[in-house]
Amino acid sequence: MFACPNCQTRLTKQPSPEGPRWVCGACGGRAVHLPSLRCTPPGAFVRRLWALARNVPSAEHKRPCPICDNVMATVPTIAVPGSGEPLRLDLCLSCQFVWFDPNEHDAWVRASSFAATDAGLPAETRAALARLPPDPPPNVVPPEGGTGDHEGSSDHEFELKYLICLLGLPVEVDPPPLHTPPWCTWTLIGLVTAVSIGALPWLPEAVSAWGFVPAEMWRHGGLTLITPFFLHAGLVHLLGNMYFLLVFGDNVEDLLGRSRYLALLLTATVAGSLLYAAASPLSRTPCIGASGGIAGVMVYYGLLFPKGRLKVGLQFRIFEVNVWVALVLWVIIQLIGMIGQTGTQVAYAAHAGGALAGLIFWSVNGLVSPRVLSVEATARR
């Protein structure tokens, strides 16, 4: 269980306008996921809050995180309303949760967005910010043979993201930081790409043999419920699906852990095939593509980071929308497409089935991490 670091009372998961939070019923403290704080009035300070926490020496991390049990960094932040003293918050660098002591969250929410500017910050916070390593110039040319700093190439990455937007693909704005490499996501992308490209010269035969056919749904012992994930109709189909898996899968894998992330993908893929069969039980048209499984990942991501932001391109203009808005619009499109699906090669029913699996998986798993589960299991023994 998640325990309050103050009184060890079990925390209760509650919904909120910013996203799920874990609240202590005894003292009123609460744990809030860092990305959720971006949509609160001082949201402009969130990036600096993360930078301050990363700059705190490990020896000064003392308080245990109620979510993952790692020690948290205590940092001075914005001014407490009505006082010049800084609001001191505890941030876990492992699971990216912020702990608010009683009344601290209310003080954070009451703070004006102007309090996040340097002029409105307490002297202690300004001094801590001044000790941060300076940002490199945006157009630094790395030494010969060197790779350069990650931030030094941010301008080029930003231009690439805008190009991706203009191609009609979403781009994350300030994505949640990863604390472990998404090896499963990268491996799956490599494997699916290799199989799909390798099958292209014999695509009709591969689709006929291993695509999912509703009228013959138990072919190969039911393996065709899963094998369409690894086949694609062409490079555009493949690249689009792998892009969505890369963008949304890394954060979901990071918070779920590898085994449960793979379980989500498997469940969503099977659910997509089953709903596709339910919508057209007599169809002999094979269904291929990883979009059913990826739909489950997208829904899980949207429910986990509802207040995150995406940039999307439409008619050579770029718009910024909340993840929740984009998810709702996408679900509506899938439902309309599934109801009126005629003369199209898009398997809307498979998308809807994967999305439903993502919703169910999220409701069962919530924000519990594998590390916490192992701690709980140890405590029960």
Summarize the structure in words.
There is one protein chain. The protein contains 12 helices and 10 strands. With 381 residues, the chain is an alpha+beta fold. It has 2 domains: 11-133, no CATH class; 172-371, Rhomboid-like fold (Up-down Bundle). The chain has a 7-stranded antiparallel beta sheet with strand order 1-2-3-7-6-5-4. A 3-stranded antiparallel beta sheet has the order 8-9-10. α8 (258-279) packs across α9 (291-304). Residues 136-158 and 367-381 have low confidence and may be disordered.
Helix and strand topology:
Layout: E1 11-14, E2 21-24, E3 30-33, H1 46-54, E4 63-64, E5 71-79, E6 86-91, E7 97-100, H2 104-110, H3 123-130, H4 154-166, E8 171-173, H5 183-199, H6 203-210, H7 235-256, H8 258-279, H9 291-304, E9 309-314, E10 317-322, H10 323-339, H11 348-365, H12 370-380
Antiparallel strand pairs: 1-2, 2-3, 3-7, 4-5, 5-6, 6-7, 8-9, 9-10
